[in-house]
């Protein structure tokens, strides 16, 4: 999947509300699987220890979480190509 050299960056404003987890299309797709287990699924974003963490291996940098975060804790940045 094309990532268009963008990535999601987290700030320390996160309150751990979990909205980003629930709006992420990757997470939503995984949640439809019969054997879905929230703890072990390769979610693109999840709350751990009270703060959201992005999994760069599965995140497609769509920006849904960025737009949905109530405290603007997430931002999408363009990464310089290697
Ligand atoms: S940018 Fe990544 S973590 Fe955020 S909603 Fe899209 S796929 Fe999920
Ligand atoms: S990043 Fe935003 S939407 Fe996600 S848990 Fe933190 S405060 Fe909530």
Write the layout of secondary structure elements.
Elements: E1 6-10, H1 19-23, H2 25-31, E2 45-48, E3 51-54, H3 64-68, E4 74-78
Antiparallel strand pairs: 1-4, 2-3
Bound molecules: iron/sulfur cluster (2 copies).
Report how far apart the termini are. 18 Å
Widest sheet: strand order? 1-4
Taking all Cα atoms into account, the compactness measure Rg is 12 Å
Q: At the third CATH level, what is the topology name?
A: Alpha-Beta Plaits
Tally of helical runs: 3
- Our estimate of the beta-strand percent is 15-25%
Order of helices and strands: EHHEEHE
Mean pLDDT, as a whole number?
93
Number of domains: 1
Strand segment tally: 4
- The CATH level-2 architecture is identified as 2-Layer Sandwich
């Amino acid at each position: 999947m094309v990532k268009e050299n963008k990535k999601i960056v987290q700030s320390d404003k996160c309150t751990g509300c979990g909205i980003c987890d629930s709006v992420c299309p990757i997470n939503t797709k995984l949640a439809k699987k019969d054997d879905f287990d929230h703890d072990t699924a390769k979610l693109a974003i999840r709350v751990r220890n009270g703060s959201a963490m992005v999994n760069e291996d599965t995140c497609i940098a769509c920006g849904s979480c960025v737009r949905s975060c109530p405290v603007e804790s997430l931002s999408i940045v363009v990464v310089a190509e290697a």
